[in-house]
Amino acid sequence: MGDSPAEKTTVILRRYLTREVLATTLAVTVFVLMLSVGSRLVGFVGLAAQGGLEMGAVFKMILYRLPYFLILIFPLGFFIALMLVQGRLYVDHEMDIIRSSGMSSRVLAGLLFPLVAVFFLIQSFGVLYLAPVANMASERFDREVAFKSAFELVRPKSFVSLGNYNLYVESFNPIERSLEGVILIERRPGEPDVLVRAKRAEQAGFEAAGNQLTASNSELLNLNQNDDESSAQAGAALIDLYSGQRYEAKAGSSEYNVTSFDTYRIRLENVDAKSQSQLDISARSTAYLWGDRADPEAAAELGFRFCLPFMIPLAWMLAVPLSRVHPRQGRWLRLLPSIMIYASSVIALMAIYAPMSEGRLSVWWYLMVMGVYVLISIFAYNKNNLKNQVKRWGAHKA
To answer: Residues 33-43: pLDDT tens digits?
Structure first.
């Protein structure tokens, strides 16, 4: 037995609306994303032009920040797409034809539920997993770039602090990009201090291997046997020193050890060794925040992440009544005010984030804000019915 005409009409409308909303959402999201990223890109390119940043680092920085931009822009793109698509149905009188077939705007909006569910899952994945991972990678990369810049700022005949090290150089060779006459002091709490003198030093880049010493007899000696596993596996900035001596002595003691070397490789900074608790709050995993939810700052970030996926169904609920326009008014009449209403919900969530992270507000404020906008959508949807009831009440009183 074949499908009834009503079922065929429903299938056709669902495909049509899904295709239009999906295409418009992607177009609007990409457009807004390019505007947002463009402003950052201009600043990074300007810094690269001044020699403070490599062009390869510019694209990495933008790439790491894309997920954070997307989780904020994607719900807005979906809302604008709903406003444009449904507004066109009113302007082109397509909504009148749909209603004449016995289908209300509420039923029509329900045809988009599968798409809303898919978008909700995508947004949840981006907010709860992808964005924290990208923020963590971005923070570590920023620290790596900052360290490279610090090494470039080494000046002859002056000390510079790099992590746990103090570095002094006699001169800088611009042709070979090496340091000449190097003195390196390492402070190690609870362990003997280390002083290294070398004729020359070069930056070896960033590697995952442990610190090693190549002695004059060509044997490899591990210098950091007490490093924990996470430090040994993490990336670090490496410096190679050539032709020198390594002195190890405890403060207040006359005993010391001296080792001569041809090549001595050191870790100046462990750029990947920060634990979850040391990372910026936006870079911590959702699972870690859940375990630390008693902390106001972690609770605020966790609540904000849980709210962002629900911006997708909220956009769906608000767009249905706000997209209603008279054909003579045009679909652009309500677009800007509607965007302001929807954007104010995100602004409200961000506004209560700071006092909540300081412990001055409860996490339940997130639910209150979301509840207010749900009530706004219900009121906007039933506005015409309320107007008619008020008119009938006034006529009855008269």
So the answer is: 988 888 777 77
